[in-house]
Design goal:
Elements (H helix, E strand, L loop, with lengths): L2 H8 L1 H6 L22 E5 L6 H17 L2 E5 L7 H13 L4 E4 L8 H9 L4 E4 L11 E3 L2 H15 L4 E7 L5 H17 L3 E8 L4 H14 L3 E6 L2 H13 L8 E5 L3 H9 L4 E4 L2 H16 L7 E3 L3 E4 L6 H4 L5
Parallel strand pairs: 1-2, 1-3, 3-4, 4-5, 5-11, 6-7, 6-8, 8-9, 9-10
Antiparallel strand pairs: 10-12
């Protein structure tokens, strides 16, 4: 990883303090309404509530500066606000950018707006999660099926290949929630017949809802050996539930997804066994590059896998892992 990438990750927390509730301004000094001669690209994210999206935003801004273009980066306050995100997509289309980058909360709800963008001849590329439309030219994302399988392999190793586990998911609608769940479930069912998944519930990525779900699961399944949270809010909810119930390190094997200070601290303390991290800065860089290339008329590959990585107390300080973590 480049040294500049690590410095950028360290700056995320500072950058986040300057972000408005659900929208950023332009990143290169130009206007943000598509007027004038600047190359303007609009990005619509799935949310702003997790540090993951701040890291994606930072990567997008860095790539925009490198290319000498203007971007905006908007997203709803939470990942359950589908209507709000659709309004942001409509606003982006109305600004007539040279291209749009979109991360779909609901893969079906966005189809008609993609048709609007196509009619306006505005190319669309995607990041993190796709819309159920064939208009998009590229998706920059983690291969979530693979990532879920990595989480399952580590869970199996940590609990000795047998026992009961449960999943706190963040969505059963958008692709990341479905694929991170399915990758875990399919790997357990195919490779670890002595492990039983006793429950799967969804907390919408909200740490409070996820904590309540986790506490109910632990109460309902006294022999539970492990829990897997499919995003930052889900995993933090499980950790908070374990803390509130007075569980100690080793009482329950907790595996998370994404990064953030709460998960990093839980791993360092031993309460969480480890987690899967993505490369959010890389996702931001990739989607802006893809949007720019689409504007330039280049032919894009349909999918750009930006990678996934296991981290735990043993490797959390390794340079390559530290470069893809964010707090």
């Amino acid at each position: 990883m480049k040294y500049g990438r690590k410095l950028a990750v360290a700056a995320i927390t500072v950058a986040a303090l300057s972000v408005a509730a659900c929208s950023s301004g332009d990143t290169s000094g130009g206007t943000t309404d598509g007027s004038g001669d600047e190359v303007y690209i609009a990005l619509v994210s799935k949310g702003f509530q997790h540090q993951f999206w701040q890291a994606v935003k930072l990567g997008a801004e860095q790539k925009a500066e490198e290319l000498g273009i203007t971007i905006t980066f908007d997203g709803p306050a939470s990942e359950s606000e589908i209507d709000s995100q659709l309004q942001m997509l409509q606003t982006a289309i109305d600004k007539n950018p040279v291209a749009i980058g979109y991360a779909a909360l609901d893969p079906e709800a966005c189809v008609s707006l993609y048709e609007t963008a196509e009619a306006a001849e505005i190319p669309i590329v995607e990041f993190d999660a796709p819309c159920a439309s064939d208009y998009s030219q590229n998706l920059s994302a983690t291969d979530s099926i693979v990532a879920g399988g990595i989480a399952a392999d580590h869970m199996a190793e940590l609990i000795g290949g047998e026992g009961e586990v449960a999943i706190v998911g963040h969505s059963q609608i958008n692709s990341t929630g479905i694929e991170r769940r399915d990758g875990f479930v399919e790997k357990i069912e195919s490779d670890y017949p002595d492990i039983t998944i006793v429950d799967i519930q969804y907390g919408e990525g909200d740490h409070l809802k996820s904590a309540d779900i986790a506490k109910a699961m632990i109460a309902a399944h006294p022999n539970l050996k492990g829990m897997y949270g499919t995003n930052e809010g889900s995993a933090v909810g499980i950790v908070n539930a374990a803390t509130e119930l007075g569980l100690e390190a080793g009482d329950l094997t907790i595996i998370g997804f994404d990064s953030g200070s709460a998960q990093i601290n839980a791993i360092k303390s031993g309460l969480m066994a480890g987690a899967i991290t993505q490369d959010p800065i890389g996702i931001g860089e990739s989607v802006v590059q893809a949007a720019y290339d689409a504007y330039m008329g280049e032919t894009l590959e349909p999918f750009t896998d930006t990678g996934s990585f296991w981290y735990d107390a043993d490797n959390i300080d390794d340079p390559d892992i530290a470069a893809v973590l964010y707090e």
